[in-house]
Amino acid sequence: MDWPRTPVERIPAKRFKPPFCPKRHCRSHRDHDFRWVRDGYYRRKCDRRTIPRFRCRICNGRFSLQTFSTTYYLKRPDLLSKVAACLVACGAARQVARTLGCSHTTVVHQANRIGRHALLLHADSLETMKAIEEPLVLDHMETFEYCQEMQLGVATVVGSRTGLVLALDPVPHRSGGEMTPGRAKRLHALVERHGPLPAGSYRRSTERVLARLLPKAESGSRLHLIADGKPSYRKAAQPHIDSGRLRLDTYLNPPRRRKHEPNSRSAVARDRAMFPVDVLHKLIRHSNANHKRETIAHGRRANAVMLRLYVLAAWVNYIKDQSVRTPRDRTPGMAAGLIDRFLDWKQLLGRRLFPWRRKLSGMDRKLYSMAMITPAVGNNRRHDLINAF
Asked: Across all residues in the chain, what is the average pLDDT?
């Protein structure tokens, strides 16, 4: 993945050349037949910087250097990289706002923008990757949206050797297990108001993940997937196993042992096989405020929860070392051959990514458009994202 060393905003105005037309309806938005002319300039209000304007000679649309920056239309562009760093440092919106001296709505809006950028970056990485050359570990992290009765599973796929986060997929599902009478009553009220969730949620989520990753298997070889003993994984994978495209190794979750008792052999084997994804889940709960145990900063909408997770995935893949305890001087993205150096947030947010120039899955396009609905939220206002599109 060819990622520029210099952010767009740091390029001198006279040296900047627009790479394509940013208007998605223009034919030069996707192909290389692009002709442009300079069309004046304006002074940005926040810092009085001179921003050059351009005009596309194909569609006659006007745009500026700022159109290609992730800080387009922001009144506080200086906060974007700081908000990103705070999000993966277990900062909640109001905490971050107090630290940076801004309103919490500014933090929320910028966090959503960073999340959409991270989602497109993840899609770019998957498209750039030539082939997956390592076993993949799959598991669902359990969390919730709005309240604890509205369970949300997030399918996470991690490379077993590199630790690269390769897929995230949300799946609202039915609550199971024992619960207090109070929780059972609240769950019953939610089901009566919004209807029950359909069965087979985990299977459909796994099918979506496999549809994205199977085309990336090495030519002439099977994709190797490691998972626990959840029956939904076997059901989703069986057609691909029968066709010879997938190998699935499952490790059953062993029964809980008593304190101070040694682990069984099956438990040790399961822990070793599932270690990469288990570590990621622990890191998510350690670094994201809305996944802490007994937190008041829990996610209210699944869409926002997922965008925050994409921010953390970008941090894990391109900024953080593979191991904190034993540093290896490389990120998972470097180990997978996607980048050749450590990146920081200013570099990662240095160039705007456009959704219509990328192949997004149905779920990713839904998340980018902020179209994933949480029924229990009274005002589920959709974001038009006029400027983002």
From this structure: 88
